[in-house]
Write a structure and sequence with these properties.
The complex is a heterodimer of chains A (about 1050) and B (about 240).
Chain A: E1 3-13, E2 16-26, E3 54-58, H1 60-70, E4 78-81, H2 82-105, E5 111-114, H3 132-150, E6 156-160, H4 164-170, E7 177-180, H5 182-189, H6 194-211, H7 225-234, E8 237-244, E9 252-257, E10 271-274, H8 275-279, E11 287-292, E12 326-333, E13 339-342, E14 357-362, E15 370-373, E16 383-391, E17 400-409, H9 413-423, H10 433-437, H11 452-457, E18 459-460, E19 467-471, E20 480-486, E21 492-499, H12 501-504, H13 510-518, E22 522-523, E23 528-529, H14 534-540, E24 548-558, E25 565-576, E26 579-582, H15 583-590, H16 605-636, H17 642-657, H18 666-689, E27 695-698, H19 708-716, H20 726-735, H21 742-755, E28 760-763, H22 792-809, H23 818-852, E29 863-872, E30 875-880, E31 885-890, E32 897-901, E33 907-916, E34 920-925, E35 928-933, E36 937-945, E37 953-960, H24 973-996, H25 1001-1009, H26 1016-1025, H27 1031-1042
Parallel strand pairs in A: 3-6, 4-5, 6-7, 15-17, 18-25, 19-26
Antiparallel strand pairs in A: 1-2, 8-9, 8-11, 9-10, 11-12, 13-14, 13-16, 14-15, 16-17, 19-20, 20-21, 21-24, 22-23, 24-25, 27-28, 29-30, 29-36, 30-31, 32-33, 33-34, 34-35, 36-37
Helix pairs in contact in A: 1-2, 1-6, 9-23, 16-18, 17-21, 18-22, 18-26, 19-21, 23-24, 24-27, 26-27
Chain B: E1 25-29, E2 37-43, E3 46-57, E4 71-78, H1 94-110, E5 119-129, H2 134-149, E6 158-165, E7 168-171, H3 175-179, E8 183-190, E9 195-201, H4 207-244
Parallel strand pairs in B: 4-5
Antiparallel strand pairs in B: 1-2, 2-3, 3-5, 6-7, 6-8, 8-9
Helix pairs in contact in B: 1-2
Classes of the chains: A alpha+beta (about 1050), B alpha+beta (about 240).
GO cellular component, one term (chain B): nucleoplasm
GO molecular function (chain B): RNA binding
Family (chain B): Belongs to the RNase PH family.
Chain lengths: ~1050, ~240
């Protein structure tokens, strides 16, 4: 069976040289993973196709340096040797190795791993005195020869190496095994893959550039890892993630300590790292080890507002209490990703003399400048480019990198949107052909119809239930429908039917993998990137009216009076939605009006009346049930943040202007409540069936110290907020209403939202049971089940539910491991965060583009009312309800002048002083003094601060110390936002037209006709659920809700 | 080097074995003439020598005499040169005392001690080279030595260690695997009846996984027993061929 052999290793542990003998077992049968195999290898999983002209075996050096090129999907038939994989693990660390592993696992990529060192004939023991690199090359070569022989000489094998000697030594030995260099290989075989060639030259340039570098030390060397580990254990060093301050990227960085073994309580706070030298080549996001400085050198953080980026402020800037300060002594794990940088214009003086090397400025403020060696410096001027950092030696002031991909000229809409995607690590390419092949074929001539077998297997609700959907107007992807039915013995049957995506997307299929990688549909301000191919998301999985569709259903039997749940049924069903309603229509039906329901127009009058009556009755019952459910959750302490405020405003607005209300209607809440109910019950079901592998969503209670801003502000206004539990918080927020100013409550709720932690997916096996609680919704278990078209979590939950149902029949059904589920949950959490960041950034981008071409003095759009919600040393923080903007307003300019206010409220700059108090800030100058209090209304002017290298930013400037006059005339928030997006798009379109004179209208139009918003119910749901609500996002969403 | 990959994606372990494969076992019985029974075993790179004296009269203090069965005395030791770094190993340190005790318990369960009341059986085991699984190799060596001494046993006692990595049990751990943060379990089994003579585990393990580990350990032990059986038969053939001449 196995032949044993022994190898000798010389290994040093604790510095001493030790001779270690290890066994090494070899076997004859090692799977080759080639479809052209003649020897009946046991090939499971990914297999290289037989119809390629050749297979390529990269040498160790090639894999180490050019892995990025091998990642191109165009390059097929790659055989990675075990020798190379081990070298990657050894030399490049875990991150790079995981990348390689993912590559090998990815079925979209044509590459396999060959365990050459365990194959009897391809293994070659290292000879005495042979250097490591030579031995590795020999191993790879012998693996190539083995492949050639194993495939009976039918397939040519190309070994790619950067070792010149190896090329001459081996190339003539065997006729079917070619040994060539990387450059030759690309040139001969992949001439048309230009991106690969460019990447190759950029990597080699970078490598060359690295060699001829000075030896002058700019930074202290990092300590070796043994010392670091010992230091962390003994408590001398602190380990944590480096977080660079966005506004003072040059100066301040915080290390958030993690895995604290240190007992001393004063260190439980973050550690400050001041200055570039102390940061010692660590980059934002790296896992670092810091040593604390002596207490005498501890500093405080800067608390003043800074205006522009990158400007060093003088030392007299106000500082907070001194806090633990340290310097980085070592880096445990680099966390580099792809960065977007901008090439500066050539004539700027801060260029290095060597014209080959360009210092580029990353888009993200927190990343230091990156030095790129390139020959295309001239053509790349003012372009945004994706780069990767290669190294940062102690001898160089800046890290070295190489360029990967060119995005386009800075400032253009398309470039900026791509930048946002790259910066959030979102990669969305079009769905590949192979993926689309998995989809059922649907065409107008050949419409899809349910499979008879499936009709048998599913519960048929087409005739027995009145099913309808309520969505925003014009929605294409309907993933939830409702039904409600009076049962004969007086009980009620409530049903929620969700599109059965998992029927079409089988686990492990290409579509599934792609959906998992995306994890969610990405909504940007002007476009969206779907998680599933269009044929599914807007056709087969969309529960449209009047057609048969597969669904996953939850049906509850409720007691007629008490509305207690008596029984619940889960299962796969076949439904036909009778009505595809939109919110306004449903609400008007509820209000007793008689609008035209499109489905009913064709019917004869008496039947129309009967149907209409049935539908209205169903809606009323539904509302009744939803109110009851809502009340139940309210008793548990469910929070509602912005929702109420919007409604309150609706009243006032209705009274004054009697406009058609565009605020959330009760029917929104009804639908949302049913969905929450369904999610909750499904969560219970899967958690009971799989106590260790269920995917749930929890919302940890917020940390009390985060509420301090909210409490301070509320106190200034005379309210007290009890934050001890979600119930008391909800009650207090309900009461904290200023009848004169609705914005007060809105702001307080916003601050409460900011204090919240994030709701997250988790796997039940990985978290103690007491942490399952959902704080915002006040439910003990919660998950996502109702939107499988746009969230991958729901797809996972659907699968779990199916497995749970199968388990009732067959006990042996089980699901994957806890670890895999936890990994999936973490992945979805990060993707969701990225999606939200991207959405927020794109909204900001559009705001900037909107204001960029407006002259602040002449355009009335640039003047707006703002409310003060925070006081800082040299200014105030304000919120602009009209645009949902938030930002600082400076009361002291950089020259030291302060704002002076004339009697009519207009403002000017003059010399004077500022005094800051808890709830107000006073400026005093020759012309008098003015006080700015919390919740005061002022008028600001919105300016765009353009910056060639980074994203544009909006600046707010004080115009008048009085409320903006025209405020009541303006429509609120969201409408403006939608208009804003359209406006900017139109401009961009015109610009492209002007630039290229080639009409691109069709594409823009296509984008435009998509349903741009996530549907309203989902927005509502997310608000109530308080998912990520970081500062601006909450304000944005608030606007969106009013749309 | 943070965390060796003990089990690769393709299912290979560090030394090229699959998860359920044992190391190569080679053994010889009757290596010393002056003892009643002796055996030498190599399990991969772990090498052990076992010697059995007895059953004989009680030596030393008579108070330890058992009136209904034989007393078993085990002694475990490691050679100074058995590990990568030479180290003096005094007798009676905690580790070897514990190991001796475990061996004693194992063999009390396996040897038919009631056949030899008021007598004593000595089992001495020495590890010559250590590469993981010391306990199980000792048990296997001692079994062969006891058989060589002609002492009746209920069955072979076969031992094996099993580790748990990535939801998969690994049979017969080597030194690097034992040190790689694997929760390991040692089992001594009487393979024919499937009775467990000793089961030992120090590490944490989720109880859901215990069953699969026990299963794997039993299979591994049965594998070992097959090899040992072969060794015994071979030895018998040789011995009988010699005596016939």
């Amino acid at each position: 069976m196995i032949k044993t052999e022994k190898i000798l290793h010389l290994k040093s542990s604790r510095g001493r040289k030790v001779r270690v003998v290890r066994e090494h077992y070899l076997r004859e049968k090692v799977p080759c993973f080639s479809a052209g195999c003649q020897a009946q290898c046991n090939n499971e999983g990914k297999v290289l196709p037989a119809d390629l002209t050749h297979y390529v075996v990269p040498d160790v050096g090639v894999v180490l340096d050019f892995l990025e090129i091998l990642e191109f999907r165009e390059i097929q038939g790659i055989i990675f040797t075990q020798t190379a994989c081990q070298a990657v693990q050894h030399n490049k660390g875990r991150r790079q190795y995981n990348r390689l592993r993912n590559l090998l696992r990815d079925p979209r990529h044509d590459c396999v791993l060959f365990a050459n060192e365990f194959q009897e004939y391809s293994y070659c023991p290292r000879e005495k005195g042979e250097c490591h690199e030579k031995w590795q090359t020999r191993c790879v070569y012998s693996a190539s020869v083995w492949y050639y022989n194993h495939l009976a000489g039918l397939k040519d094998i190309v070994m790619v190496t950067e070792d010149r000697e190896a090329v001459t030594q081996y190339s003539s030995l065997y006729s079917g095994v070619y040994v060539i260099s990387m450059q030759e290989y690309l040139h001969n075989f992949w001439l048309d893959v230009h991106a690969a060639h460019e990447l190759y030259s950029s990597i080699t340039q970078a490598a060359l550039g690295r060699e001829n570098e000075g030896s002058e030390k700019e930074y202290i060397e990092h300590l070796p890892s043994e010392l670091l580990e010992a230091g962390i254990k003994s408590g001398r060093y602190v380990q944590g993630i480096l977080n660079v301050n966005k506004h003072r990227a040059q100066l301040e960085a915080l290390v958030t300590a993690q895995g604290f073994s240190n007992k001393s309580t004063e260190l439980s706070r973050d550690v400050l790292v001041l200055g570039i030298k102390h940061r010692n080549r660590a980059i934002h996001g790296d896992s670092v080890v810091v040593e604390l400085l002596p207490r005498g050198e501890w500093r405080g953080r800067n608390t003043a507002l800074t205006e522009a980026q990158g400007e060093e402020r003088s030392a007299e800037a106000p500082r907070s209490q001194p806090m633990p300060t340290g310097h980085v002594v070592g880096i445990l794990q680099r966390n580099w990703r792809d960065y977007v940088v901008t090439f500066p214009p050539r004539d700027t003086p801060n260029q290095s003399r060597n014209s080959q090397k360009i210092l580029t400025v990353p888009w993200d403020h927190r990343i230091p400048k990156i030095r790129i060696s390139t020959q295309q410096a001239d053509t790349l001027q003012d372009h945004r480019v994706v780069v990767r950092i290669d190294s940062w030696d102690s001898t160089s002031l800046y890290p070295n990198g190489h360029s990967v991909r060119i995005l386009g000229r800075a400032g253009e809409l398309e470039t900026e949107v791509q930048t946002i995607l790259v910066e959030n690590c979102i990669s969305v390419s079009a769905f590949s052909e192979a993926q689309l092949k998995e989809m059922p074929v649907v065409s107008p001539e050949q419409p899809w119809c349910p499979d008879p077998g499936q009709v048998q297997a599913r519960r048929d609700l087409r005739e027995s239930h009145l099913v309808f959907s309520i969505d925003p107007r014009g929605c294409e992807d309907v993933d939830d429908t409702l039904s409600v039915k009076q049962l004969p013995h007086g009980a009620l049957e409530l049903g929620v039917h969700i599109a059965d995506v998992t029927h079409f997307v089988k686990e492990g299929s290409l579509t599934d993998l792609e959906a998992r990688a995306r994890a969610t549909t990405y909504y940007l301000a002007d476009r969206r990137y779907d998680m599933l191919p269009e044929v599914l998301s807007s056709n087969l999985c969309s529960l449209l009216g009047g057609v048969d569709r597969y669904a996953m259903s939850v049906l509850w039997q409720l007691d007629a009076d008490s509305l207690e749940v008596k029984s619940v049924w889960f299962g796969r069903t076949l439904i036909r939605s009778s009505y595809q309603l939109h919110y306004e229509l449903a609400q008007s039906l509820l209000n007793g009006e008689e609008p035209d329901v499109p489905e009913l127009i064709r019917l004869p009058p008496e039947q129309r009346d009967r149907n209409l009556c049935d539908l209205t009755q169903a809606l009323h019952t539904l509302t009744h049930v939803a109110r009851h459910l809502r009340a139940q959750r309210d008793r548990g302490g469910a929070l509602e943040l912005e929702g109420v405020e919007v409604r309150a405003q609706l009243d006032s607005e209705k009274n004054i202007t009697a406009l058609v209300p565009r605020q959330p209607l009760e029917v929104h809440e009804t639908v949302a409540e049913c969905m929450i109910f369904a999610n909750h019950w499904v969560a219970r079901k899967i958690q009971e069936a799989f106590p260790h592998q269920a995917l749930l969503r929890h919302h940890p209670p917020p940390r009390q110290e985060h509420f301090s801003q909210l409490q301070d502000c509320a106190r200034a206004q005379g309210f007290s907020i009890d934050t001890r539990s979600n119930k008391s918080l909800a009650g207090c927020l309900e009461q904290a209403v200023d009848p004169q100013d609705p914005v007060v409550n809105q702001l307080l709720r916003m601050m409460a939202t900011q204090a919240m932690s994030q709701a997250m997916y988790f796997c039940t096996g990985a978290v103690p049971a007491e942490d399952y609680y959902h704080y915002g919704l006040a439910l003990d278990r919660y998950t996502h089940f109702t939107s499988p078209i746009r969230r991958y979590a729901d797809v996972v939950v659907h699968r779990l539910l199916t497995a749970a149902l199968d388990q009732e029949i067959d006990r042996s059904v089980s699901v994957g491991s806890t670890r895999d589920m936890e990994e999936t949950a973490q992945h979805m959490n990060t993707r969701n965060r990225a999606a939200q960041h991207a959405q927020r950034m794109s909204t900001e981008l559009f705001q900037c583009l909107f204001f960029r071409d407006r002259h602040p003095e002449t355009d009335s759009d640039c003047l707006a009312d703002a409310v003060i919600y925070g006081i800082r040393d040299n200014g105030v923080l304000v919120f602009v309800p009209q645009y949902g903007l938030r930002g600082p307003v400076y009361l002291r300019s950089r020259g030291g002048e302060v704002v002076s206010v004339a009697t009519d409220g207009s403002c000017d700059w003059s010399s004077g002083t500022l005094t800051r108090n808890a709830d107000h800030i006073t400026t005093s100058s020759v012309s008098g003094s003015a006080t700015f209090r919390l919740f005061q209304h002022i008028t600001v002017c919105i300016l765009v601060h353009t910056n060639p290298c980074h994203a544009d930013a909006l600046n707010l400037q004080l115009v008048r110390h009085a409320p903006h006059k025209s405020q009541s005339m303006r429509p609120v928030g969201g409408h403006t936002r939608a208009r804003l997006v359209q406006e900017v798009q139109r401009q961009a379109e015109e610009a492209t037209l002007r630039a290229s004179l080639r009409p691109k209208l069709s594409r823009e139009e296509k984008q435009f006709s998509q349903s741009k918003q996530p549907n309203l119910y989902s927005l509502l749901e997310e608000i109530q659920e308080l998912s990520l609500m970081s500062s601006e996002a909450s304000a944005q969403r608030l606007c969106a809700t009013t749309a | 080097m943070a965390g060796l990959e003990l089990l690769s994606d393709q299912g290979y372990r560090l030394d090229g074995r699959k998860a359920n494969e044992l190391r190569k076992v080679q053994a010889r019985m009757g290596v010393f003439a002056q003892a009643d029974g002796s055996a030498y075993i190599e399990q991969g790179n772990t090498k052990a020598l076992a010697v059995v004296y007895g059953p004989h009269e009680m030596r030393g203090s008579r108070s330890r005499t058992l009136y209904d069965r034989a007393a078993i005395n085990c002694q475990y030791s490691m050679a100074t040169f058995s590990t990568a770094e030479r180290k003096r190993r005094p007798h009676g340190d905690k580790k070897s005392t514990e190991m001796s005790l475990h061996l004693k318990q194992t063999f009390e369960a396996a040897i038919l001690t009631q056949l030899y009341p008021r007598s004593q059986i000595d089992i001495f085991v020495k590890i010559l080279q250590s590469d993981g699984g010391n306990y199980s190799v000792c048990v296997n060596a001692a079994t062969l030595a006891v058989i060589d001494a002609g002492i009746p046993m209920r069955d072979y006692v076969c031992a094996c260690t099993v580790g748990f990595v990535d939801e998969t049990p690994l049979a017969d751990l080597c030194y690097t695997e034992e040190n790689g943060g694997v929760s390991s379990l040692a089992m001594a089994l009487l393979p024919r009846g499937g009775q467990i003579a000793l089961l030992q585990m120090d590490a944490r393990l989720h109880q859901d996984h215990l069953e699969s580990m026990m299963e794997a350990a039993m299979t591994a032990c049965k594998g070992v027993s097959k090899v040992l059986d072969e060794v015994v038969r071979q030895h018998l053939e040789e011995a009988s061929a010699l005596s016939r001449d």
